[in-house]
Amino acid sequence: MTRQTIIAPSVLSANFSRLGEEVEAVAGAGADWIHLDVMDGHFVPNITFGPPVVKAIRGRTDKVFDCHLMIAPADPYIAAFADAGCDIITVHAEAGPHLDRSLQAIKALGKRAGVSLNPATPEGVIEYVLDRLDLILLMTVNPGFGGQAFIPAVLEKIRRVRAMVGDRPIDIQVDGGIAPETAGAVAAAGANVLVAGSAVFRGGTAEAYRSNMDALRQAAQDGLREAA
Fold first, then answer.
1. For a tag on the chain, would you pick the N or C end, based on fewer CB atoms within 10 A?
2. Residue 210's CB: how many other CB atoms inside 10 A?
3. pLDDT-derived band at 148, boundaries 50, 70, 90
């Protein structure tokens, strides 16, 4: 099943001194979703922001808020991020012992549930929760910082996950090193949601953001065409 390519700019690369304006600008420039990278300095070696910041920018756009929780434990904070306005909440398979329970908690709050896998984590860990999932996020860098280089070995994992998903209505998302140079390969492998930070926010203006996202979409379309 071929799905429309979704561009989800990561605000991790935005200008934090004017975060609300940046969200409005990238949304107006054609972003499909807004990707929120939440880091705790424990599960990953960086600290970003929590529910109050998400709530503060929620009113700036009606775009989907796609929340990626790089925190451990995640369960105690799921409700807070739901209340702050997140539409999709993704937890890491590596962040806790009870993945199925975490996904149930997200769904019980009326939110879409996602699971993320680090580059070295095999896709088999999600085999028995597929029917609880709305999204699978495959990290194409080791999580924690923006601006890292894409890990090509994850391309084969994307293909295997695409096969696992089959006809289920599950989005396959990639995050890390996504740029026009890599978007075609990940789209051809089966990913339909592209998270990009520096590749989108480069240039610092709404016009630049639109051009950057157009380049990502075109690269993804070219990759799909070549794979067909």
1. C
2. 18
3. confident
Are 30 and 194 within 8 A, CB to CB?
Answer: no
Q: Which helix (H) or strand (E) holds 193?
A: strand 193-196
- pLDDT at 3 > cutoff 80: no
More confident residue, 145 or 157: 157
Q: Which of 37, 66, 134, 171 is catalytic?
A: 37
- What is the bridge-based pairing of β-strands 135-139 and 193-196? unpaired
pLDDT tens for 101-125 read: 999 999 999 999 999 999 999 999 9
DSSP string, 43-69: SSS-B---HHHHHHHHTT--SEEEEEE
The reply to whether 37 belongs to the active site is: yes
In 65-205, alpha helices (H): 78-84, 99-108, 154-165, 180-189, 198-201
Structure tokens at 212: 């950057």
Q: Is 175 labeled as catalytic in the residue annotation?
A: yes
Note the helical H segments in the chain.
Answer: 19-28, 51-58, 78-84, 99-108, 154-165, 180-189, 198-201, 206-227
Asked if residue 25 has pLDDT above 60, the reply is yes
Phi and psi torsions of 85, nearest 5°: 115, 15
Is the pLDDT reported for residue 146 higher than 80? no
User: Which are the contacts of 128, defined by CB distance < 8 A and separation ≥ 6?
Assistant: 100
CB 114 within 8 A of CB 134: yes
Single out the residue of 95, 88, 93 nearest to residue 63, CA to CA.
Answer: 88
